[in-house]
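SUBJECT: A protein chain and its fold
Encoding: whole-number codes for local backbone shapes
RECORD BEGINS BELOW THIS LINE
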Amino acid sequence: MAGANRRSERQSQHPVYTQLWDGYSNWRCNWTWTIALPSAMLTSQKSFCWFRFGSQSESTSWDAATMRAARTWESDCAKKHGNEHALVPKVTAPASFTAGGWRTTSLGSCATSVDGGRNGFVLTGTASPDDARFSVVRTKDAAFVEVVDDALVAGAGAADMLDLELASSAETFMDAGFDYPPPTRVRVRMTDGAITLLAAGELASPPAIQMASFAGGRRVRVPIAESWALHVVYRDTDDGVSHERAIGTSKSAAHDALADSFTVGAGNRVTDCARVGDRLERWVRETPLVPVTR
């Protein structure tokens, strides 16, 4: 969108700023920021982009208070009807956590939750946070997934499984229909950490996934390049015969469900994670806010 004109406005009754890109491109976008006054802290951000001569569009949202984000897109070119994602936060964590402390440290308030209730998506069956839930966060070179389950089961027909899809790029509304390499698909059995490579994708071998046990669940470290996309699904069984439910970070478990992570720290909010006892907790440092000009 090089050369596009910018138009910004402030609604005086609310600390909301809106910027519209409307210029020398067939792609148009607008962004809205909510800023808390008088501290000038950026608290949320929304965007909507669309193509002037088609129905391709994308909307995103990010909320600093809850560390939740979402992305929805659609494109007629690929005959898709859109998809929704709960984006995974990418944060700065202390070396004491990334070097091995993750085994005994809960992800706490630094991660996005998927619980079968208000957070994330139910892919199959009926789910609730009391059945199973997981949280996920990313650092520069790894993803950490924490699974809490009322009972970890491995039966003759089914076992509690963590499914991971990794790819070097995520499909977006602007490039829908392009040919992408298939994602790497890996399954981790929760009871013993056994790893099954379901599809090699762009990797010659499965990533060196590690797992640690804690009371009521498991914590998993997944090596993944900072620029790669990630999709996480947890498949839960109660009877060991079939999976009663599956919850995930996207509405779809297909390749187009791969969602880019977002870096927590838009505007003047920079979020780091610190180890506080046996949990990761967020803390925010402020940087000068860049003024929006007309």
The radius of gyration is 20 Å. DSSP finds one helix and 22 strands in the chain. The mean pLDDT is 78.
